[in-house]
Amino acid sequence: MTTVTTVGVVGLGIMGSAISGHLLDAGFDVIGTDVSEEAMKTFDGRPAPDLATLARESAVVITSLPSAEAALQVCAELADSARGNVVVDTSTLSLAVKEQCRSLFEEAELLDCPISGTGAQAKVRDLVILGSGDEAAFATARPVLEAFARSVRHLGPFGDGTRMKLVANLLVSIHNASTAEAFALGAAAGLDPTVLYETVRDGAGGSVIFDKRGPLMVQRSYRPATARVSMFLKDVALVRELAESVGVPTPVLDATLPLYERAAATGWADADAAALLEVLEER
């Protein structure tokens, strides 16, 4: 198994910046890039002059990208220079786009490894890697992944990571809405939000999302976001696409979609999903 010393990180947003920070703390040489000048200003690793240089210098490359267009463009550029690398795509994208990206690599191995966890969890290394793809390549990348995640799972053939991520995102999207609904009901009924949070999380009604988004709802603090409303709109669309492809109805998820759409339409698109509380109270 190859010993990895240099890791490339493409995309230094909420997730990518946290990932690169943990890799630096673990002693890796990290070379990174982002289209945002602001993101590059706060990056403590080595700035990459271009993707070709990043690919040549990195045994393992991690991509954390916001859209299908960005992923396809980055993968095409990396594929031109990647020779024997392992490229770990942590982005949340459709299966079709993941396969398109995979087809671009002839001399490197692309792994499908989306992440379960919020930006806040990324900062404290509380992430789960939902890995899939070539097992030997995954073994090479594992020490890198373990540097920024608390759990690293290999789930099977390429694409199973995305399938699992979309199942998990179905639950997270619903939990966001149910947590907001609980806070709206409690506040309207005269309960103190802090007492509500502390009591519910101690009983059967709590969840990881209640733990993470509850304090934001108590404080009405939605920016900076740990996971944006706009991101959930994209993710819900991907979950519904998968569900339709296998013929499974998602009535509970479908009922939450108007809340996200209303949040985006009323100025909360860049805010944390905890802002669903404002939509529910508005109604």
TrEMBL record:
Q: Which UniProt keywords apply?
A: NAD, Oxidoreductase
Q: Which residues form the 6-phosphogluconate dehydrogenase NADP-binding domain?
A: 6-156
Tell me where on the tree of life, at the top rank, the source sits.
Answer: Bacteria
InterPro entries (alphabetical): 6-PGluconate_DH-like_C_sf, 6PGD_dom2, 6PGDH_NADP-bd, HIBADH-like_NADP-bd, HIBADH-related, NAD(P)-bd_dom_sf
Pfam families tied to this protein:
NAD_binding_11, NAD_binding_2
Q: Which positions are tagged coiled coil?
A: none
Name all 3-hydroxyisobutyrate dehydrogenase-like NAD-binding domain ranges: 159-280
Report the leader peptide range. none
The similarity comment for this entry is: Belongs to the HIBADH-related family.
Q: In its UniProt entry, what is this protein called?
A: NAD(P)-dependent oxidoreductase
| Species | Paractinoplanes pyxinae
Classification from the root reads: Bacteria, Bacillati, Actinomycetota, Actinomycetes, Micromonosporales
